[in-house]
Specification:
Number of strands: 3
Shape: elongated
Distance between the termini: 47 Å
Radius of gyration: 23 Å
Helix content: 55-70%
Structural class: mainly alpha
Strand order of the largest sheet: 1-3-2
Largest sheet: 3 strands, antiparallel
Length: 218
C-alpha cells in the first residue's frame, strides 16, 4: 500500500465509484495535495480488490458494463490505521523553480517567461478554488458533511497561491535589475537579501524599502 493507495481507499470510503469516477473525483480534490497520473489512479482500485480492501461488481448502464468499487470492512480498518502513521515529508515539484535555479544557462527573457507561465498556472488553480468555495455557499459540495475539512484545506491552498503570486512579482523586480543571468555572485543587493534570510526575515516585506525602488507593478 502506497500513499496513493490510501488516497483512493479514502475516496471509496465516501461512496462506491467506477474507475472513471474515481479519476474525476481525484482531479477535483486530490490534485491539489497528491497529484498522480490517471493511469496510476485506474490501477489502484484493482490493487485494493486484490488486498481485500475493496470489492468490485459489474453494472450495466446505457448498454455498457462498468466496474464499481466498494470499500470493505478490512479497507475501512486499514484506512483508520494509516491515519495514525507518520506522514511523508512534503515535496515540491515546480519546473519554473528548476529553470530559475539554472537560469545562467539561458537569458533573462527565458526565466521571466517561466515565471509568467508559473503565474498563469497558479492563477488558474487559484480561481478554480475561489469558484469552488462560491459553489459551496450555494450548496454545491457533493459531501456537505465534510465541508469543514474541504474549507480548511482550501484555506491552505489559497494562502499558498497568494504567497507564490507575491513572490513572482518580487522575483521579477530582482531579475529586472540583473545585467545578465550569469556570474553575478554576491552583489550588494544579494548580500542584503542573504542577510535577511539568515535572520529569518522576509525579503518580500523588506525589499521595496531596502532596494530604494517601488515594488514591481508589471
Amino acid at each position: 500500500m502506497t500513499t496513493s493507495s490510501f488516497a483512493v481507499l479514502a475516496l471509496l470510503d465516501l461512496r462506491p465509484w467506477t474507475g472513471y469516477e474515481l479519476t474525476q473525483q481525484a482531479k477535483r480534490s486530490l490534485r491539489y495535495a497528491w497529484p498522480k497520473s490517471e493511469r496510476l489512479l485506474y490501477s489502484e482500485p484493482k490493487k485494493l480488490v486484490e488486498l481485500g480492501y475493496a470489492t468490485v461488481h459489474t453494472e450495466e448502464q446505457g448498454g455498457r458494463s462498468r466496474n464499481v468499487y466498494t470499500i470493505t470492512e478490512d479497507g475501512t480498518a486499514a484506512l483508520g490505521g494509516w491515519m495514525s502513521t507518520r506522514t511523508q515529508a512534503p515535496r515540491l515539484e515546480i519546473e519554473a523553480m528548476l529553470r530559475l535555479l539554472f537560469a545562467d544557462h539561458g537569458s533573462e527573457g527565458d526565466v521571466l517567461r517561466s515565471l509568467e507561465e508559473l503565474e498563469s498556472d497558479i492563477g488558474e488553480h487559484h480561481r478554480a478554488i475561489v469558484e469552488l468555495m462560491g459553489s459551496y455557499l450555494d450548496g454545491g459540495h457533493p459531501f456537505p458533511e465534510r465541508t469543514h475539512l474541504s474549507v480548511l484545506f482550501a484555506t491552505f491552498q489559497i494562502e499558498m497561491f497568494k504567497a507564490m503570486e507575491r513572490w513572482i512579482e518580487f522575483a521579477r523586480g530582482e531579475i529586472d535589475d540583473w545585467p545578465s543571468t550569469k556570474d553575478l555572485g554576491m552583489t550588494g543587493r544579494t548580500e542584503v537579501l542573504t542577510r535577511l534570510l539568515a535572520e529569518d526575515r522576509s525579503p518580500l516585506e523588506q525589499a521595496p524599502v531596502l532596494s530604494g525602488r517601488p515594488a514591481a507593478t508589471r
